[in-house]
Design brief:
Blueprint: H1 19-27, E1 30-34, E2 40-44, H2 47-55, E3 59-60, H3 89-97, H4 103-127, E4 131-132, H5 133-138, H6 140-150, H7 157-167, H8 175-198, H9 204-210, E5 212-213, E6 216-217, H10 220-250, H11 253-261, H12 266-276, E7 287-289, E8 293-295, E9 298-300, E10 305-308, H13 310-313, H14 348-365, E11 370-371, E12 393-395
Parallel strand pairs: 2-10
Antiparallel strand pairs: 1-2, 3-7, 4-12, 5-6, 7-10, 8-9, 11-12
Keywords: Heme, Iron, Metal-binding, Monooxygenase, Oxidoreductase
Pfam families: p450
Protein name: Cytochrome P450
């Protein structure tokens, strides 16, 4: 039997899905592929099938943390993150950590995010064109928000960035480096947790350290796992998402002009940008079947690894008319970019706020923004869970 083709698929255009997605949606919605570890997995692409895998408890997230289990990211091994647990443990963890994302706290963060985005873009404008949007906004905005949430100094950002870049690599030979980076981050976060216990502050980590429900608390390992998750999903995903969103809008000048004139259209536009985005590829959604299950007419055996491919599902023509087009007025827009079911992203609302604040600030502050180089000259990261250009140089009309 031939070896299944390698996954992730390659694409000449980082902003658009590989050609294989449309082919699989049409001809082979459930098919075998080989991930970088050499493990075979079932790739599921159609919207309804992906939703089912994401919500069906017969597909386990926790099973990927076991030694030797198929996984795309080495960081998943042994993790106790809410991101990779099953009920009832997942139910317990989510109940405790959800306090960090209460409506009141999100409203407070929203005000801070908008102010920070305006501050960062104002600094870019003051320095004058050209400017690097990655260094000026896409990286500092989400990581500053995360640092404020955790109560850590911004001066430590370079260390966070270096550790998490390694931890979110899927390179087959990176396990040693991943373990070293995770241990370094664990030492740092452990010291931070202990400091919060001794001197509570008005930050998310203090809330989590103190969070209790009928005497139940998060232990240190669970707090560490949440810190990893927050840095990965809250920083890297948003940084990549901002880059993809801006580049997509720059390819659609009519939509860009509309947003300048109709800022109220920004929330709907962000939802459509999220649907089309290739920033994350849904690679973190891997599951393992607990029992034999049939998906899309294909029998998946107990113990088989299954990857519900969110980016393909978001282009399913059975659900999204003209799926490759950018249609900011698309309604409804039931994309799966933040997942589905019990593992739906806790920080989804914060992610939306950051994208709206970042794009809105760029359009208000940098009139006529455009790339300073040809798009083909951008250098993209490879082997990371969230693809992004190393730099994103832009120019604009000076007032």
């Amino acid at each position: 039997m031939p070896t299944p083709p390698p996954f992730p698929f390659r694409t000449p255009n980082p902003l658009e899905p590989p050609a294989e997605y449309a082919e699989l949606l049409r001809d082979a919605p459930v098919t075998r592929v080989t991930i970088p570890t050499g493990d075979p997995v079932w790739l599921v692409t159609r919207y309804e099938d992906v939703r089912r895998v994401l919500s069906d408890t017969r597909f386990s997230r926790e099973a990927i943390t076991a030694p030797g289990a198929p996984r795309l990211l080495p960081i998943a091994e042994g993790s106790k993150s809410v991101f990779v647990t099953d009920p009832p443990e997942h139910t317990r963890l989510r109940r405790l950590v959800s306090r960090a994302f209460s409506p009141a706290r999100i409203r407070q963060l929203s005000t801070e995010v908008v102010a920070l985005a305006d501050e960062l873009t104002a600094a870019m404008a003051a320095a004058g064109p050209p400017a690097d949007v990655m260094a000026g906004l896409a990286q500092p905005l989400p990581i500053t928000v995360i640092c404020r949430m955790l109560g850590v100094p911004f001066a430590d950002v370079p260390r966070f960035r270096a550790w998490t870049d390694v931890m979110l690599s899927w390179a087959r030979d990176s396990r040693t480096e991943v373990v070293a980076a995770r241990e370094a981050l664990s030492r740092y976060l452990s010291g931070l947790i202990e400091a919060k216990r001794k001197e509570p502050a008005d930050d998310l980590l203090t809330v989590l350290v103190a969070a209790a429900d009928d005497g139940d608390r998060l232990d240190d390992e669970e707090l560490l796992a949440f810190g990893y998750t927050l840095l990965g999903a809250g920083y890297h995903a948003t940084t990549a998402g901002l880059a993809h969103a801006l580049l997509t809008l720059l390819r659609h000048p009519q939509q860009l002009a509309r947003l300048r004139n109709e800022p109220e259209a920004l929330p709907g536009t962000v939802e459509e940008l999220l649907r089309r985005s290739q920033a994350g590829a849904g690679l973190g959604a891997l599951r393992i079947a607990r029992e034999d299950v049939t998906i899309g007419g294909v029998r998946i055996a107990a113990g088989d690894a299954v990857l519900p491919l969110i980016n393909a599902a978001n282009r399913d023509p059975e659900v999204f008319t003209d799926p490759d087009a950018l249609r900011p007025d698309r309604a409804p827009n039931p994309h799966l970019s933040f997942g589905h079911g019990i593992h739906h992203c806790l920080g989804a609302q914060l992610g939306r706020i950051e994208l709206q604040a970042g794009i809105g600030a760029l359009l208000r502050t940098l009139p006529g923004i455009r790339l300073a180089v040809d798009e083909s000259q951008l250098e993209w990261s490879s082997g990371l869970a969230f693809s992004r250009p190393a730099s994103l140089p832009v120019v604009w009309q000076r007032g």
